From TrEMBL, chain A:
Belongs to the binding-protein-dependent transport system permease family. LivHM subfamily. It comes from Devosia crocina. It is found in: Cell membrane. This is Branched-chain amino acid ABC-type transport system, permease component. The chain crosses the membrane at residues 16-36, 43-60, 102-123, 190-216, 237-258, 270-297, 309-329. GO terms for cellular component: plasma membrane. It holds the Pfam family BPD_transp_2. It is a multi-pass membrane protein. The keyword Transmembrane helix applies. GO terms for molecular function: transmembrane transporter activity. GO terms for biological process: amino acid transport.
TrEMBL record, chain B:
CDD domains: PBP1_SBP-like. PROSITE patterns: TAT. GO terms for biological process: amino acid transport. Residues 48-410 form the Leucine-binding protein domain. Belongs to the leucine-binding protein family. Gene3D superfamilies: 3.40.50.2300. The keyword Signal applies. Keywords: Amino-acid transport, Signal, Transport. The keyword Ribosomal protein does not apply. This is ABC-type branched-chain amino acid transport system, substrate-binding protein. It holds the Pfam family Peripla_BP_6.
Amino acid sequence: MFEVIFLQFLNGLDKGAAYALIALGLTLVFGTLGVVNFAHGALFMLGAFCAVTVRMFLTMETVTVDPERLSPWGTPLEVREPLVQAWLGDFGAVLVNYSVPLSILITIPIMLLVGIALERGIIKHFYKRPHAEQILVTFGLAIVAQEVIKSIFGPNPIPQPMPTDLRGAADIGAFLGMQANVITYPLWRLIYFVFAGVVIGGVFAFLQFTTFGMVVRAGMADRETVGLLGINIDRRFTIMFGLAAVVAGMAGVMYTPLLPPNYHLGMDFLVLSFVVVVVGGMGSLPGAVAAGFLLGILQSFASMNQVKAIIPGIDQIIIYLVAVVILLVRPRGLMGRRGVMES
Amino acid sequence: MTIFKRGVSRRRVLQTGLAGIIGSGVAPLVFTKGAWAQEFCNNPTGDTVTFGLNLPLTGTYAEEGADEQKAYELAIAHLNGEGDGGLLNVLTPSALKGNGILGKKVAFVSSDSQTKSDVARAGATRMIERDGAIMITGGSSSGEAIAVQGLCQEMGVIFMAGLTHSNDTTGKDKRRYGFRHFFNAYQSGIGLGPVLGQEYGADRRAYHLTADYTWGWTQEESMKEATEALGWETVAAVRTPLGATDYSQYLTPILNSGADVLILNHYGLDMVNSLTQAVQFGMRDRQANGKDFQIVTPLISELMAKGAGESVKGIFGTSNWHWNLQDPGSVAFTKSFGAAYGTPPSQAAHTAYVQALLYADAVERAGTFYPPEVIKALEGFEFDGMGNGRTLYRAEDHQCMKSILVVQGNESPTSEFDVLNVVQEVDRDVTTYDPSIFGGDLGPAEPVPMCA
């Protein structure tokens, strides 16, 4: 039984890592700009499609017809040769194999630009407007992003293979000195969890230990006072929006081997992530991260056969049940600031 | 003016009236086959006849839908006398002439069913009512097939099902206006059971993950029946939502369940995802109960095998047809399809193509588009040359009785298309079963409902 519980716990951490990464970006935007950003899921999806695009370029092929050889249907055989491998040899093959992690390098500047353009171009005009209008405009932006991706890449998921060296399962049981092959877990899911930890830790460190972060935190607490000190807080908040887009984009890139991305990917995660933010507390970064992992773990345990035998279908609704209870008994969320969502 | 001068006699009125009736061409129809019921849904009056293609171009079964669309377009081209003729040249017996159907050129309209039953039903309604479709065909989900054939029964339009594998399609939900060429879950069990027994022995413990809709339920039931007959024990059967993407929460409980076989009652993208993730969880490297852990996918296609890549190697399943078969029908179809699209056809494409031809042939033999006559022409029709050996369209349940294939993921493929090996062709005599075991009622063919 210990093995089952341990595996479900790992599963929960894995799911929670994705929830926490998206919720972290959402909370960054809400905490700094006060904007409820329904386009945040679309940023996750755009990041995933950065990985798709990089792979498409890396796997471009030349097609030549060999009249000497025939296809199974009797026509001259089309011989396809990967361009990158032809140019770069073994190094090209390595680039193709590691296309997903390599995409991160391209995704960071792209998502930073997308985030800044979005904030400067549209979002800033809605700072002083009601939350309902912010939700409408950002939801509209999400739909536009979806349709653009759909028109370019089509409606169906595009699988992104993980590097061949990282496809197997890690024998965690043996690593912990237990019997071999009892507790095994996919390597890429563990990598995703570690990656999420590094990104979350990086964001917290950036806010905690840099002057820029200190100013941003001060602005989050009292925007007007920081402005009166002669600091251009708007510019810093714009960069924070860009940073949130980068976090969402990187989360999307690394998730592609686990879930083939399609244009709807962002919407699938958006609703769950909002629930995570509400449970954690609107505007609370530690709350978003803690709630992400907590709900991931709860969902994982709810999917155990023993639990479902008692309450069928509980795995599908557990997150929303928790959200309802939290909103009833503690409207500001687990770690939310007093007054937020309580007025 | 002279008429009025002489007056109009009763005899002359009768003579003139009769001449008028004969002259207007009504009389010849009285003596024409099927003329007793020219009023039926979308009776084609012009020089074209329209097929309604209801295809999942998005969603879990989108790849199958896209391949079906190619096959239908090829079939329509061949029916109209274009291209190399494909299976028109090898279907026996055949009334097809390559000049359309009853001299009318075949056209088509299509609708994306999104792998959703309600969307499929709405699309079929639109194609019948707005576009005048004489026949609806397609689909890669049994949920869609059952929903659409129910609609077609209500509207008096024949439905030639595409890829649908649930026992219910021609079992408890069968309809007089619905016909299925594809095999079903029960036949998969009949074919696959003995091979699993031979490969993995009689002492096994199976864990099922099952897509939670009609196909998954009947597939699970049929596989349980087949494996328990071998002596296997069923440890658990867990339902997963159609279109689920992350199976980790369903896979982890298997690792310590005591099972040594995982049976994935999934299809399309669901199967690609669940199989790939099961392999990522290290299931194929595990030992359980002192045996190698095994994975089985009872229904598998080359499209899915290609999508699953390395994960599918060595995995057993069943298929309706495979492009590498060497009978004249399979060779002809693979040649036509490959030349047109640059890839071999999938089993979904094959069944779609065959259904289009069988409908057209039945209309030619009936001499009319009047659905009850076309139904009579299809019921009990026995044919050959379409790639599955001698095949019977059984009158009792509108299910084709034919040979099926047990296949295995190819361990050493020679090309990107060489992903499945045919292990065994299971003969029609073996896959034939009593049509009464699944119940259901076909319902009446007449009176023909009017769609609008």
